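Crash report, auto-generated. Payload:
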Amino acid sequence: MNWQAVRSIYVFEMARFFRTLLQSFVSPVISTSLYFVVFGAAIGSRINEVEGVSYGAFIVPGLIMLSVMTQAISNASFGIYFPKFIGTIYELLSAPVNFLEIVLGYVGAAATKAFFIGIVILGTSALFVDVSIQHPLAMLAFLVLTCLSFALFGFIIGIWAGNFEQLQLIPLLIVTPLVFLGGSFYSISMLPPVWQTISFFNPVVYLVSGFRWSFFGLADVPIGLSLLAITGFTAICLGIIWWIFKTGWRIRT
Amino acid sequence: MPVMVQIENVTKTYGDGFQALKGASLDIHEGEILALLGPNGAGKTTLISTICGITQASSGQIRVGGYDVVTEYRKTRSLIGLVPQEINLEPFERVLNTVKFSRGLFGKPRNDALLEQVLRQLSLWDKRNSRIMELSGGMKRRVLIAKALAHEPRVLFLDEPSAGVDVELRRDMWDIVAGLKQAGVTIILTTHYIEEAEAIADRVGVINKGEILLVEEKAALMTRLGQKELRIELQTPVEALPAALAGRGLALEQGGRVLVYTYDIKQERTGIATLIRDVTDAGLVLRDLQTKQNSLEDIFVGLVTEQEDAA
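Recovered output after restart:
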């Protein structure tokens, strides 16, 4: 393993994050505060409790997931797309590194950034509502796994994308709707039966549910299923990335 | 000298069917400077990209330092430094950071003293904390060279290093190349500036339409293919060649004022002495004599035209 290379890519990518520190941290803090004002105070005041948890607290795991998923995707996809766009990818392709090292560097950095943002949102939420975490270790594990798997997914998008529009296409048209409809702001049990059935085809439901379980012990689907979903998603992404590097698809001519 | 880069029958056909390399074979010796000459689209960059791992060859084999570039890519790539043709740099990054990144990417441990030396050598030390986007075009090219040298390569590829470069940088670059050669680094540069190949290369390869047409010692190439011109300036212009001088391939130029005689310098007898005697015997008065050797450019154009005529 070329650990030196992994470290170099990681440090280089993190430097980009720290260059835009204000945007990286202030933006999630502001958007989280806005969600609390709208959903917590304005709408939440009309919803008393969801399965014994105040609505304000109930949406915290969903809010974190929403930002973590979108940030992990956008950081990882941009991280690998930008070198392709400006041509610096030549260096990566001519360096003595294998796909695992490249992925560890880029995805590791993107996942770290998403993780920090998740923690910032958790901290911001604590200013508005009482957040208790019943299973802190499980919460951390779910958070880390979500950061990693969505960063892997973002990495694939970054390699696939041929222009900036395509870079935004999947997050905008697929991921954001799936996250919003994945029970981030409501419990699946609040939906009519037919929509409940449809929701179970949405992979995000399993992730949000598992994450929420680690906070309140409440889940829409069994925790084991959630764990299976996230590890399965990670494995699929890893498999696709392995194939990409093996065939040189969209990176080597 | 041992072979450092061995290219055997390499072909490359791109997805759109364009065949960029048609069975290229070439041995590059350790410590030499090889200039690869060829017009745009000849396959120079494809060949370099294939050696460096950016492009996959369709068939054939390439070895660097005795290792296969596909199966033992870690070993070969550690040996190679690449200065690409395009200025591909992250605009928001600082000079020192981007050079450090290159060293780390190639698995080399941190060495601040070496990076300082490289940056000083390229007159970049004062700019080490500048962002790339604040630098001029020439400075950016220096950064590309610094990045390639940061990981102490044993083989350095310079892809069109002189494109859009001022005289000062070109001279600096030639000095650096000379220094690297002294340190035993093998250097391959592609160029379509023939004077560059003439100035610094030990051997010259000519590539066109994906085929390596010729690889020769520069000096031998000049001797083998070089022709010289003897220009005889006359005191009084003549209207036509005197009959005694006919049949020698002489040409009359500048309104009959200059006689041009082309001869092969590799020939034992160039015929100059006889010619001058015959010119004098024919009653012509010599005013001045000049000889001019064919440049690499003439040779190069000759080879490429020959290939096109044969096709």
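Post-recovery validation: Chain A has one domain: 3-246.
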